[in-house]
Amino acid sequence: MALLRKSPDVCHSPVRRGGEDEPCARTGRNPEGAFILTSDGARTSWEVEGPHFPGWEMYHIKGSPVDPDRLYASQSSGWFGQVIQRSDDGGKTWNAVDNSFAYDGVPGTHMWYDGTPHPWVFKRVWHLEPSLTDRDTVYAGVEDAALFKSTDGGASWSELSGLRGHGSGAQWQPGAGGMCLHTIVLDPTNENRIYIAISAAGAFRTEDGGVTWTPINKGLRSGQIPDEDAEVGHCVHRIAM
Asked: Which domains can be identified in the chain, with CATH numbers?
């Protein structure tokens, strides 16, 4: 289930079931659909719309800061697979857009649960992050972990392969929920600076719009991995700015 909360003052400020505010909201694996909550600037009462996509697992729904009527949603099911949906009227109607997420070149391998090499296989989209300046530009964090970008409102997707091609990529390993890129944070002061987090690899930063990436895990401690001070391998669950 995913909840999207909207108000004039803070457009598309979602909440999750536990009630804590997040940059975006998703509780995947619960086939309850998506709900949109709308309020005025006072935010003392809310209108609830939904469920949208009943019976589907909703991994994420997020609105464009540029255009409050432009929403992106990621839905998944064991029967129909992964589908990206877009709304241009604030969630009243939805249309499926492109769902082709192809890794650049030869994908190679990452580490499996038992430490053996395992091929990269696309499974689903965990996170959608619309651009802060362009309603047609949106980023997608996927499983197996990679970052994709669309500049045409989701009509096509291309991988920012510098992340997966980082020298540590072969050592990334799934967490209990899979090897997912679940967080994307865009820096409002620098359009080329992006932060992402992967379970279980850690957090990374780019300063050039996704061409090159730097791990930013120094100081993290993970007692469950052989080297708890390792550059990568940490199961970071969420980051925020």
From this structure: 1-96 (no CATH), 99-241 (2.130.10.10)
